[in-house]
Amino acid sequence: SEQEIQTILSGLWFFRFPPRLEKAYRAHALTESIKTYRFNGLYALGVFAIICMAVYRLIPEDSITSTMQAYSCALAVMVGVRIFSLFRVLDQWFNRYVTTSSIVMTTIAVYANNAIPMGAGSTLSYIGLTYILFFIYCFVGLRLQLAMMANFVGGIVGVILTYALGSQMDWHIMPPTFATASFLAMFLAYGLGRQGRINFLQSYLLNLSLEKSKKQSREDALTGLANRRYLNEMLVVE
After folding, report:
1. Torsion angle of alpha carbons 92, 97, 98, 101, nearest 10°?
2. Is 121 exposed, middle or buried (0-12, 13-18, 19+ CB in 10 A)?
3. Which 3 state secondary structure label does DSSP give 171?
4. What SS3 state is found at 219?
5. How far is residue 32's CA from residue 29's CA, in Å, rounded to a whole number?
6. CA dihedral 111, 179, 40, 190 (to 10 degrees)
7. Rounded distance, CA 155 to CA 174, Å?
8. N or C: more exposed end of the chain, with fewer CB within 10 A?
9. Is 132 helix (H, G, I), strand (E, B) or coil?
10. For residue 128, what pLDDT band results from cuts at 50, 70 and 90?
11. For residue 103, what pLDDT is reported?
């Protein structure tokens, strides 16, 4: 009802929709996320490719092979997810395969920044990591909880992989950079998600208002019975 929706809208920071409304919102959000990703996926590929080319020009020669291998894996994951998003039969699995790919991307980025000597390309490499985190939180359409899981799981796996392959992590640079980028992206994603829920509820209110007006135009104000206008509409239908 309108009263219930107004109550939710006045609930400020953390929305908790009733089960039926939450289900409707998630179905709506999933559809919108897939549409958005089909565009943002191309944008992401272009920007990441530019970063890769810029890093390639700056890193030491003995790091070129390992860096390109890591970045090629990341690009392959991005291309794969972009292709998956084009098949409607896979729409129901969107959150799962995007979350999985986000974990893989974060793992690769953390490992590459820790294990591969980047030389003059270090700054750009960290920019690439920050870009990946912002993309996961804000541009792939994941719910905040899923984006947070992908972020932290990918970071932990990246650190484990770094030490498992015999490298060391620079604790003076990586943790502050990763944490700062993660929290900034998280707050931005929270704001976008909250605004998305507000927009959904406002559109829901508008639909209720239109339905109410439509119903009132079909009923006699005194008796509440269907009027001549409703009869004419039903004659057309029949």
Report:
1. 180
2. buried
3. coil
4. strand
5. 5
6. 150
7. 10
8. C
9. helix
10. confident
11. 93
CB of 7 closer than 8 Å to CB of 54: no
CA atoms within 13 A on the CB side of 180: 10
Q: For residue range 184-196, what is the model confidence (pLDDT) as tens digits?
A: 999 888 888 888 8
- Cα 5 from Cα 17, distance rounded (Å): 9
Residue 169 CA to chain centroid, in angstroms? 28
CA distance 57 to 34: 35
Distance (Å, rounded) from C-alpha 8 to C-alpha 21? Answer: 11
Spatial separation of the C-alpha atoms in residues 195 and 78, rounded to whole Å: 27
Helix (H) or strand (E) run with residue 34 in it: helix 19-58
Residue 150 has pLDDT above 80, yes or no: yes
Residue 219 bridge partners (DSSP): 226
DSSP annotation of 76: H
